[in-house]
Amino acid sequence: MADENDHTDGAHDDGPRGVSRGRRLAALRGSERVLSDSPFARTIGERLAQLTAEAPGAYDLDGWLDVYGDGIVADLEARTAELLGMEAAAFFPTGTMAQQVALRCWAGRTGNDVVALHPLSHLEKHERNAYTVLGGLRPVHPTTEPRTPTAAEVRELDEPFGTLALELPLREPGFVLPTWEELTEVVEAARERDAVVHFDGARLWECAPHFGVGLADVAALADSVYVSFYKSLDGIAGAALAGPASMIEEAKAWRHRYGGQVAQQWPTVLAALAGMDRELPRLPSYVAHAKVVAKALGEAFGAAGVPWFRINPGVPHTHQFQVWLPYPPEVLEEAGVRLAEETRTTLFNRWFPGEVPGLSVTEVTVASSALSWTAEDVGAAVDALLERVAAGG
C-alpha cells in the first residue's frame, strides 16, 4: 500500500500522534490474525530469508550478475512485456522516474507538451510535480470529480493535449475504476483528439477482475503502461514501462539521463519475479474476498451504532478500499494497537485525518493474510476495536 512521497502504512518516521512506529509494527508482528497487513512489518533478516527461499524457483541462480540492465533485468522486462501484451518494456528503479520518462517521450512524439490527467492522480499528488518541473510539461484537468474522467469530458476539453494519462485504479478517491465500457469510450475520445493514452497502472495487476477481461486486454487500450513491482506483487521496489519497441528504446535513453541505469539490480528484480509467481495468481481471490470484507465491515459498524461511517467504494473495485470513521486518528491508532497487543488480532493499519474535521480514513488491503477471515471474524474484531475506542475517549 506504500507509495513514494505519500502517506504509507509504516514507512515514515514516528509522527506527533502518540503511537510510535516501533510499537505499531511490534503489535502487528505479534498478531496471529491480520486483516490489513503492512509490507514494512518485517526485519531485514526476514526479508532476506524470504528472498533466499523464493529465488531458486524464480530464476536460474547460476546466471551471471546483471550489468547495467542486461541478464536478469532484461528477462524481467521481456516477461513484463509478454504479460501486458506489449512489444517491449523497460525496468526502472522507481515509478516516478518511469512516469516522467513516458510523458516526456510522448510529448516529443506528439509535439504537444500538454497532459490531460486527474488532479487527484499520483502524478499530481505524490511525485512533487516532476513531470512539470523536470519535464516542462503542462497539465489540464478533464474533471475534478472523484472518478476517472468521462469520454464527454475528454472530448469537451477546450485546448489540445498530447497525452491522456489515466490512473487505474484512481487511488485517492478509494481505488476506483470505471466500467469497461467507460474505459474504452474515454480512450476512444482521446484518440479522436489525436492524443496518445498512458496508463498509470501501478496497481493494474488487480484491475482485470473488475473489467472482466484479461490483463493484456486492459493494457492493449493504452499506448504505454507503467506497472509497479512492489505495490501489489510484494517486491522490494522497482517498476516497468511497457509500450512500442521504438518508444521503449527512447525511454531507456532517458532512463540513463535520469540516473536510472543502475549497475546491479538483481535483488530487486529477483523479488519482482518471485512476486509475479506468488501474487499474480492470487490477486483475483484477493479482489473477490475484499467484497466480503467490505460488506462485513459495513454491517458491523451499522450494528454497533457508529454515528457515521463509510466504506468507499461500498463494493470494492480491487482488493483495496477506504474506511472512514468519526473518531480522531490518534484514538483509532491507540485502540488498534491495544487490540493487537491484547488479542493478537490486527484489524486496520494507519489512520489519517480526513478533509472534514473529526473524520479519519484508513486504506484496507485484502491480501493473503485476510483470506481466512470470515464475515463473523470481521464483525467480532470491529466490536473489540470499538470497545477500545470508547475506552480511549
Automatic annotation (TrEMBL):
Keywords recorded for this protein, A-Z: Pyridoxal phosphate
Record's protein name: Threonine aldolase
Pfam entry (one): Beta_elim_lyase
Domain of life where this protein originates: Bacteria
Family: Belongs to the threonine aldolase family.
GO cellular component terms, A-Z: cytosol
InterPro entries given in the database record: ArAA_b-elim_lyase/Thr_aldolase, PyrdxlP-dep_Trfase, PyrdxlP-dep_Trfase_major, PyrdxlP-dep_Trfase_small
Basic and acidic residues bias locations: 1-16
Record-level Gene Ontology MF annotations: L-allo-threonine aldolase activity
Residue ranges of domain Aromatic amino acid beta-eliminating lyase/threonine aldolase in the record: 69-298
Organism listed in the record: Streptomyces netropsis
Region of interest: Disordered: 1-21
Record carries keyword Zinc: no
The protein's required cofactors: pyridoxal 5'-phosphate
Swiss-Prot/TrEMBL GO biological process terms: glycine biosynthetic process; L-threonine catabolic process
